[in-house]
Design a protein that fits this description.
The structure holds 2 protein chains of 2 kinds.
Chain A lengths: L3 H22 L4 E6 L6 H15 L3 E6 L4 H14 L8 H17 L6 E5 L14 E5 L9 H11 L4 E4 L11 E4 L16 H10 L8 E5 L8 H12 L5 E6 L6 H14 L5 E5 L4 H9 L3 E4 L8 H8 L4 E4 L4 H4 L7 E3 L2 H13 L1 H18 L2 H14 L6 E3 L2
Helix pairs in contact in A: 1-14, 3-4, 6-9, 7-12, 10-13
Chain B lengths: L9 E17 L2 H10 L2 H14 L10 H8 L4 H8 L9 H18 L14 E17 L2 H10 L2 H13 L7 H8 L4 H9 L7 H17 L1
Antiparallel strand pairs in B: 1-2
The chains are: A alpha/beta, B alpha+beta.
């Protein structure tokens, strides 16, 4: 398990000292995290990596997972989609199931603590047991255009919290409670992001029949229409008219997702006959994704819609020039022409790729800038630091606070 | 000169910040202007200094948030340039910065009728954010120039930024902390003046550290 000292090469001793200082100010506070799953999904992944660091900082922090049956999680899945703005048929019974499970958890769980940090809608009803302690609700979903019925239902609980947290300004809604902005993060020491020797990169490329005899343009994402894989092929073809290059489209699709398999089929049909398009249907394999990113010349993320889009931070961390759509949280990670290239269309993506292939020094500079941007803003340690600052904000209401 | 002791020790502080959403949003110049005039000082500070903190190593540095948005979301290149080139170093308070941004926008909008008709697309709304900061002592001190230079080499960028930007603008000390100490306590008015004249808005974080050190080292070598 990694400790704070392992992050010093990325954040410096002063960054580690800052974490210790903040932890010192939170001494004696009992901090409780709540979510709906111990494994799988971004929240659990972050908490699994963050909790050991908190304990190393001698914080009294614990993490509990609520219980729920199949019915409950079927409802929360519908809520999740509805919050993203998808049409969902949600019945009165669905709301009842949500409330019954929420109240059961609130009754059974130990809810003592000074700072209660609740992640996402599933455990939101725990706030019914709110006492004099401070409660924070962390929203990992883009709720900018939600199904109003679900949002209104959840809002009744959200406003009982002392504060809320969103990943991006555009994901938020106007609320009568404090709203903080805390972006998600990547772990530079994880298999997906850690440094790899060149041989390991080449071995993975070789495994998939990719040779670096011409520039490699890669998009890594599941086969989903919202990731616009057909648009990626079109952009590649516009580039290929002028510059020889190859395209890697790598990702997975859930076996129970018929649309994903259909999209994969369409992508294969569209790519048929072009030996420079590599379509890789991969199982979840962080090391291979890492190697594919490192072995690429340009990383593309031509999504039509996106959440925060941490694949951008992953690519930037590897010093790669990135061309990505200006949607979701991507503009927070890429400042156009400073740390990557933003685009709005197939033609725009192709134009940016051509520019980067023609100007390798500029592409390299974008990659360097991108890596530093991630170092300063999207690493796990920054995420932890901002959580600690937010806990301190529960006792300090001013914009400028002196800790002496 | 080397070991001349200042009247008072320089106490190095640092600050850590968190971003808070205000819920205030703009999609055109009129809305942006109206909100620039009324948002808290911590919003003005955030949007004129955020890019320095978030892009510590970017070169060339992106402009302030207002200039960036006006250019990229509204396509108003001339106004963007005017906002980006506001000489913040010469403005000694957040109120003065706010007034300068507002008057720059008003002047432009009076001359360009079409500018009022431009709207940002839905995903390019300007969200007013503010910096909530915690200031704390680092435990580092200096009483002589060599000690001062030694600490400047080692302190975090947050500490440098606190003494250069927040002390001057958010604590309204009128000048950066380094210059104040060099002039008033260390008896080094020339170095104080030179540090005061630096434009920290057009260099990277490490570039700023190097320039301060250069000034101090040149004095020590003299």
């Amino acid at each position: 398990m990694n400790g704070i000292k392992d992050y010093i090469p990325f954040i410096g001793q002063s960054g580690a000292d800052e974490l210790s200082l903040l932890a010192e100010h939170l001494k004696g506070k009992k901090i409780r995290f709540f979510n709906s799953t111990a494994v799988g999904g971004g929240v659990a992944e972050i908490l699994n990596r963050m909790m050991p660091l908190m304990r190393e900082l001698r914080l009294d922090a614990t993490w509990d997972v609520i219980k729920g049956g199949e019915q409950f999680f079927a409802v929360t899945k519908k809520f999740h989609n509805a919050l993203h703005g998808h049409a969902e048929e949600i019945t009165g019974r669905d709301f009842e199931v949500f409330m019954e499970t929420g109240r059961l958890n609130a009754a059974e769980m130990d809810l003592s603590g000074d700072i209660m940090f609740v992640h996402d809608p599933q455990p939101i009803m725990l706030v019914e047991k709110k006492g004099a302690n401070k409660w924070i609700w962390r929203c990992h979903v883009d709720v900018s255009a939600p199904d109003e019925r679900v949002w209104s239902f959840l809002r009744e609980y959200i406003v009982r919290y002392d504060a809320s947290v969103f990943s991006a300004p555009s994901f938020s809604r106007v609320l009568p409670i404090r709203q903080f902005l805390v972006a998600p993060s990547i772990d530079p020491l994880s298999d997906k992001n850690r440094d790899l020797p060149e041989e390991a990169v080449l071995a993975v490329l070789g495994k998939y029949g990719i040779y670096r005899d011409k520039p490699v343009i890669t998009q890594i994402s599941r086969f989903d229409r919202l990731k616009d894989p057909l648009g990626v092929i079109e952009a590649y073809r516009l580039v290929k008219r002028h510059m020889d290059c190859q395209l890697v489209l790598a990702g997975g699709t859930a076996v129970d997702d018929p649309e994903g398999l259909q999209v994969l089929e369409e992508v294969r049909n569209r790519a048929e006959g072009d030996r420079d398009i590599h379509i890789l249907l991969m199982p979840q394999n962080d090391l291979e994704v890492n190697a594919l990113q490192r072995g690429s010349d340009i990383i593309l993320q031509k999504s039509l819609k996106e959440g925060f889009g941490l694949t951008i931070a992953e690519a930037l961390w590897k010093g790669k020039p990135v061309v990505a759509s200006a949607v979701g949280g991507i503009p927070l990670q890429i400042t156009h022409r400073y740390s990557g290239m933003l685009c709005h269309s197939v033609e725009g993506a192709a134009f940016a790729i051509k520019q980067l292939l023609q100007a390798p020094d500029y592409a390299r500079k974008l990659g360097e800038n991108g890596r530093e941007h991630v170092r300063n803003n999207f690493l796990l340690t920054r995420h932890l630091k901002e959580y600690l600052l937010m806990f301190m904000c529960m006792e300090h209401g001013r914009d400028l606070n002196r800790l002496f | 000169m080397e070991n001349h002791e200042a009247k008072d020790e320089f106490l190095f502080y640092s600050r850590l910040s968190l971003t808070e959403l205000t819920g205030l949003r703009a999609v055109n110049l009129e809305q942006l202007l109206a909100l620039v005039k009324e948002v808290p000082d911590s919003c003005i500070f955030h949007h004129t200094h955020r890019f320095l903190r978030q892009h510590l190593h970017l070169s060339p540095e992106p402009p302030n948030d207002f200039a960036y948005w006006v250019f990229h979301a509204l396509g108003e290149a001339r106004l963007a340039e005017a906002l980006a080139s506001i000489d913040i170093v010469r403005l000694d308070s957040l109120r003065a910065i706010r007034e300068k941004i507002a008057s720059t926008m008003e002047d432009y909008m009076a001359r360009s009728v079409s500018a009022r008709q431009r709207f940002a697309s839905e995903n390019e709304t300007f969200h007013f954010l503010k910096s909530v900061s915690f200031i704390f002592p680092t435990g580092r001190t200096a009483r002589t120039l060599p000690e001062f230079a030694g600490q400047i080499r080692q302190i975090s960028m947050d500490s440098i930024y606190f003494h250069m930007f927040e002390a001057r603008l958010r604590l309204e000390k009128g000048d950066n902390d380094f210059s104040l100490w060099l002039a008033e306590s260390a008896g080094e008015p020339e170095i104080a003046e030179a540090v005061s004249r630096l434009d920290p808005y057009t260099c990277t974080a490490e570039g700023l550290r190097s320039r301060i050190l250069d000034i101090v080292e040149r004095r020590r070598a003299a």
